[in-house]
Design brief:
The complex is a heterodimer of chains A (about 650) and B (about 160). Chain A is an alpha+beta fold and about 650 residues long. Chain A has three domains: about 5-100 and about 255-325, no CATH class; about 150-220, Alpha-Beta Plaits, CATH 3.30.70.2750; about 355-635, no CATH class. Chain A contains 23 helices and 13 strands. Chain A has helices spanning about 20-30, 50-70, 80-85, 90-100, 105-135, 165-175, 200-210, 225-255, 260-275, 295-310, 340-345, 355-370, 375-390, 395-420, 425-430, 435-445, 450-480, 485-510, 515-530, 540-555, 555-565, 565-585, 595-630, and strands at about 5-15, 30-35, 90, 155-160, 180-185, 190-200, 215, 280-285, 285-295, 315-320, 325-330, 640, 650-655. In chain A, the strands form four sheets. In chain A, strands 1, 2, 8, 9 and 10 form a five-stranded antiparallel beta sheet that branches. In chain A, helix 2 (about 50-70) packs across helix 5 and helix 5 runs antiparallel to helix 8 (about 225-255). Chain A is extended. Chain B is mainly alpha-helical. Chain B has one domain (about 1-155): Four Helix Bundle (Hemerythrin (Met), subunit A), CATH 1.20.120.610. Chain B has five helices and no strands. The longest helix of chain B is centred in the middle third of the chain and has 38 residues, at about 85-120. Chain B is elongated and about 60 Å long. The mean pLDDT of chain B is about 90. The chains are: A alpha+beta (about 650), B mainly alpha (about 160). The interface between A and B is medium-sized, with 34 and 29 residues.
Amino acid sequence: MSIARMKKIHITGHNSIREDAVGLLHQWGAVQVNDLREEFKDKNYFENNGEKKKTGEDNLRKVTFITKFLERFGMKTSMLKVMSEGKEVVSRSRLEEVMNRLDMDGLYGKCRELEKLLRQTDKNRVKAHERISQLKPWVAMRVKLAELQDTVKTRVKTGTVDLKDYDELITELRNNPGTEVIQVGRDNKSGYIFLVYLKTVDGVVDELLKKHEFNQVSLPLEDLEPEGFINQLENSIRKYDKQEEELVKKAEGLTSNKQYLNILYDYYVNFSERESVGDFMAGTSSSFFLSGWIEGKNSNKVKKELESKFREIEVFLADPQKGEQVPIVFENNRLVKPLEFVTDLYGKPEYSGIDPTPYFALFFLLFFALCITDAGYGILLTLASLFVLKKYKMGPGGTRFWKLGLYGGITTIVVGALMGGWFGNTIDILPGFQGLKDIKGAIMIMDPIKSSQTFLYFSFLLGLIQVMFGIAVKFYMDIRDGDIAGAFLDELPWFICLPCFVPIIIGFFGGGPVSGAWGAVVKVCLLVVLLFNGRKSKNIILRLVKGTYRIYGGIDYMKDILSYSRLFALGLGTGIMAMAVNNMVTLIPSGSIVGVVFMVLIFVGGHTFNFVMNLLSAYIHTSRLQYVEFFTKFYESGGQEFRPFMERRKFTEAS
Amino acid sequence: MEGLVIALFGGAIAVFLAGTGSSIGIGYAGQAANGLLSEEPEKFGTMLLLVALPGTQGIYGFLTGFLVMNKVGLTGGEIAAVSVIQGWQILGACLPIAVSGLFSGIYQGKVCAAGIGVAAKQPGDVMKAVIYGALVETYAVLALVITIFLLNGVQL
């Protein structure tokens, strides 16, 4: 059994020790705190103490804002660097020192101000650019913009008209008495017109303009000609650029606070988290009540510690009740643990269910290795995983992932050596090295390319084994849950029946005469399924229909097993691709240095590419075989992850 | 030698039609997944399976192509003398997986693309969407089985 036993924990105590107790729980990170808001609607006492929570959240918001803002100016903390160098250990006194040294409110104000100024500068500049592009077509107009205004007797208009109407409109306007029109210029879409006319001919001109869809453009009333104004705008853009440069310099000056900000960020994240858990609690004016889940193995220790540290506290432990949604913790040994990664992607089981990880662990690693079948690539994966594990300090999730890589790598080395793949056929085509070739030949038991049919049948055989194993696990679960009839009538017949198909199919494909016994066993098994699968239905016809349908569903087993041919296809694919890379290398004449350099480049590049691509598809398809072909036999997800109330630190470690 | 050409053409059809089906299918699912990825990058792992699901047809096509090469002796040993009739037989044997691989790949891709919507709205039920997607694959498998039987039945 590898789902950890859980206990429900209830803690109640006097308000005077509440903060300390919650602080300890936070530090230990062993309890998932349940939200009691629904249960104790009006008795949530913590709100009257919201001041502290608000301060915490305020400060967190400020730190986050400052960090986000300064990140734009090169303050980004590289998480890779944090992982490789380790997190700074922050003691109480160091934290106090940081809080004294760093005037956060002041810094926040400065950053706000800088941000505002930067935005303003940018806005002004964009506006100036817009003005310029608006004025550009009017440069030819040698008139001060401010003069483009109506007088007592005349009207002044500037605007554009579609090119196809341009000439016509100009001619028509020119023919109109009391109108003066100047062609300012044209671009590829419209013509620009400057127009002065007497107010007495208003009607006629308006009519003409309307007819040709004249768009009036109002230009800024500056005391300058368009060209002069553009020059002025360009000057101001230069000014804005300079202003921005100065502001950026100021902001960059503030990035030296990085270390302090990171420390404060971690502090306030946890501060807020600690405060906000109060929302989940209930209580009276002088006591608090907290309820949650804890792993069975930690429960007594936590109870004892709490009760010995505080006098005014009471801790109760209880077993989970039927029907309660219990959070799931897996309990696997070190070897199986990394494979929980695969299970987690699919979803956690129910508390009453089963942890499938130990059941597929070996299959997963073997299938993964078979998809790659190259010891050279196995070595690469092993070294890469070891490197990452050694260099970077990661959380449990990251460690688990790279350990999975390490296991996969080691298995691949073994399987690859058995299949004789060392960066494809590199060893075979190397001139000399007879010793190496002998060793390789001695280890190898099967060449997947030469005996490809064997490889294919082997894949199907593995499929049959895993599918049968899945049925066996379901058989075990049925017995465990007391469903004896289910175990013997639903699972056992298939378990017996499936392997009997092997000799029958071999016979069908010309493998010689088949003993009738196999067929007889199959018939008996299918008869059991036909008669008993629908045993819960009273109606005999319905019962038989259900049985028939279940036999029809047996096609799924065939589908599942055939699906394992992907092991063969992927395994063969890796080798063939690697051979292709090596072929390219041998085609290059090795006489000159340039030739040798090219050979090395193609060898390294080609194999790296092949390695990465095959790694990806090996992982995907191996997972798929577990999820679609194996899990469907017995596994159901639907459980919730255990999320303990614990400190989360990104940049620092508590001392 | 015409027989050999026809037989290899059959194998080629199986590889490229089934492969096309898978590519289009993965294309649909991948596009949908990228849409969700831009909002919720942490769902990459969950969606990976849905996106990769329509890849099986391509593998079956590859397998068939390989079986054809094996049949005519291109993977080792002597190349068989394939008559025109036998060539057509082999080509015919390749058609089930070629055609159903093409279409089931495309439709499986559509089902998986819709499954991405499940990943977005009901993350807990993604695996049910995977099962729906896998249902489409049944018919590619049935076609593969017939292709294998037919290839086996051709007497060279």
